[in-house]
Design a protein that fits this description.
This protein is an alpha/beta fold and 221 residues long. The chain has 9 helices and 9 strands. The model has no long low-confidence stretch (mean pLDDT 93). It binds adenine.
Length: 221
């Protein structure tokens, strides 16, 4: 799966995506991250990426063309693949907006199964010139009922949740855990500890060795 991330702030992705499971997924080529900065697609000599909104209103709006050019580059078939005449790539374009459709884990599974390339357009300021949606056919997606300062965090949420649905990204044990109806209440050693005078213990059932009863307990949680 290739994620093409159109953002003015590619460096904000570094610390999250280069560690742990996702870092390993990149290293093992299970996922590929391709950053495109609209500023590099700006013909304006001052590299001006935003302007005042038509019709008035507060803040600044991101210009359409730098984003559209970045999107065009992301959606172009790489020369190597053209030569090899590989199968047609299935692409999806997402534009993050607090007013978009709410993203779910079902979407994550669907995207992982049905697309080879996902293009993630990240807005800043008061939004993006709507003609970007007309040209790219992007779906507007929100990650929750709150307003962020940009789409970058939302992109990371989508990348993380889609990547973990791709075969080989999670370890065998972790993928099995996802399949099971398992409790969100988990415990590890020590069996008991004291904190500010109180004792905190692992529920006895988990120490009992009765697998059937343990599974029933987990389902109830
Ligand atoms: N951009 C700003 N807020 C957002 C949200 N809640 N979801 C996705 N993109 C956003």
């Amino acid at each position: 799966m290739r994620f093409h991330i159109i953002t003015l702030f590619p460096e904000t992705f570094d610390c999250y995506l280069s560690h742990s499971i996702l870092g390993r997924a990149v290293e093992n080529q299970k996922i590929e991250l391709n950053f495109l900065n609209p500023r590099d697609f700006c013909n304006d000599p001052h590299k001006r990426i935003d302007n005042k909104p038509y019709g008035g209103g507060p803040g600044m709006v991101m210009k359409a063309l730098p984003i559209i050019r970045a999107w065009e580059k992301a959606s172009a078939i790489p020369f190597r693949e053209k030569l090899l005449f590989t199968k047609k790539r299935k692409m999806k374009t997402i534009l993050f907006s607090p007013g978009g459709r709410k993203f779910t884990n079902e979407d994550a599974k669907y995207f992982a199964k049905n697309f080879d390339d996902i293009i993630l357009i990240n807005g800043r300021y008061e939004g993006i010139d709507h003609r970007v949606v007309e040209v790219t056919g992007a779906e507007l997606i929100s990650i929750g009922d709150y307003v962020l300062t940009g789409g970058e965090l939302a992109s990371m949420v989508v990348i993380d949740s889609v990547a973990r649905q791709i075969e080989g990204v999670l370890g065998k044990y972790e993928s099995l855990e996802e399949e099971r109806i398992s409790s969100h209440e988990v415990y590890t050693r020590p069996e008991q500890f004291r904190f500010h005078g109180a004792t905190y213990s692992v529920p006895e059932i988990l120490l009992s060795g009765h697998h059937k009863k343990i599974e029933e307990w987990k389902k109830e949680r």
